[in-house]
Amino acid sequence: MKNKSITALVSAFARAYHAEHNQIKIFDDRLARELLTNDEYTNISSNMSKGITFFLPEFTGTQEECLRAIVDWQLSPSPLGRAAFAEQALQNAVTLGARQYLIFAAGYDTFAYRQPDFADKLQIFEIDHPATGDDKQRRISSLHWQIPSNVHYIPADFLDPDWQKGVLGCPAYDPDQISFSSLLGISYYLPKDSFKQLLSAIVMLLPSGSSIVFDYPDELTFTPQAGERTQKQLMMAAQAGEPMQASYSYRDLEQMLEELNLLIYQHLTPAEINVQLFKAYNDSQPAHPITAFDNVNYCLAVKR
Fold first, then answer.
1. Residue 25: CB partners within 8 Å, gap ≥ 6?
2. pLDDT tens-digit map of 93-110
3. What is the DSSP letter of 218?
4. Signal sequence: where (predicted)?
5. Are 126 and 142 a contacting pair, CB within 8 Å?
6. Which residues of 78-111 are buried (b: 16+ CB within 10 A; e: fewer)?
7. CA 288 to chain CA mean position, Å
8. Nearest CA among 152, 88, 87, 149 for reference residue 120
9. Residue 234 has what DSSP assignment?
10. Which residues, in sequence order, are bridge partners of residue 263?
11. Mean pLDDT along residues 274-286
12. What tens digit of pLDDT does each residue of 167-193 get?
């Protein structure tokens, strides 16, 4: 990827919009808006609201009402849900002794700059393609944010077979320290063999007891049985030049992780995501419900 990721920017927009427009939040990314330029925020808002007939053909309302409907229906569920799941799992991992947080394909993630109290025990590593990472660093510099002393940016092209050298070469990284890794929004865009290779490489970096969290599309994603939102998500990703390439049954996933010496510790289906992560928000905003995509699951796996 030579240019900034459109899907990463749209995900940041969804997190920013949700944080700005709700008191009770699924996930509170209070800094996401600052990472987007005014032009980016305005352009995404305009383009999305103009696409109401694509997303919700029967909907009528003002431009702002159209935007809210699209954000809540199509854009927000996955970025909000998986971030909430990952950071809850991270906090639990820190309680159990994890002292390193590896954020793979960090994109415009802001955890490193809005660290909760429990993060003071962590070394945080943002590992991303140089193009995206450099773009994010430019944005941070223009905002005059101070980079916390426990945050480390590591450029890595995951297509390079030796990308792990960048992690191992970072003076702050300890390969013997229990770690927590996140790979959010990645499994969709890699062929199965490539995703397995990436997981395998990550597992080799980590000691036993370390954990990895990721989201993944189920086996119906590329079939006629996929939900309407899923089909539109596939179209949007393809039009952005970042087509989705893989899907997994639970059995596929379990077998792959078993081969990599990983044990599924927690797994959430869409129905469970709605109950565990979305209920408080939906109870507070019955006029603007957010529901999990019917083809997306979350997984937390632990290295044996």
1. 18, 19, 281
2. 999 999 999 999 999 999
3. B
4. none
5. no
6. bbbbbbbbbbbbbbbbbeeebebbbbbbbbbbbb
7. 22
8. 149
9. H
10. 302
11. 98
12. 999 999 999 999 999 999 999 999 999
Q: How far apart are CA 35 and CA 52, in angstroms?
A: 26
**Closest alpha carbon to 220 in 208, 201, 233, 206:** 233
The owner of tokens 């609201």 is 49
Q: Which amino acid is at 4?
A: K
DSSP, collapsed to helix, strand or coil, labels residue 302 as: strand
At which residue do the structure tokens 């395998």 appear?
Answer: 200
Calculate what percentage of the chain has a pLDDT beyond 70.
99
Strand order in the sheet with 179-183: 151-155, 123-128, 100-104, 179-183, 211-217, 296-303, 262-268
Which string of b and e fits 152-168 if b means at least 16 CB within 10 Å? Answer: bbbbbebeeeebbebbe
* Residue 257 CB-density burial (10 A; 0-12 exposed, 13-18 middle, 19+ buried): buried
**Nearest 10 degrees: Cα torsion 122, 273, 80, 200:** 50
Task: Answer for the pair 103, 115: CB distance below 8 angstroms, yes or no.
Answer: no
Query: What's the Rg (C-alpha) of the chain?
Result: 19
Name the E strands within the chain: 100-104, 123-128, 151-155, 179-183, 211-217, 262-268, 296-303
**Residue 222 in 3-state DSSP?**
coil
d(CA 256, CA 251): 8
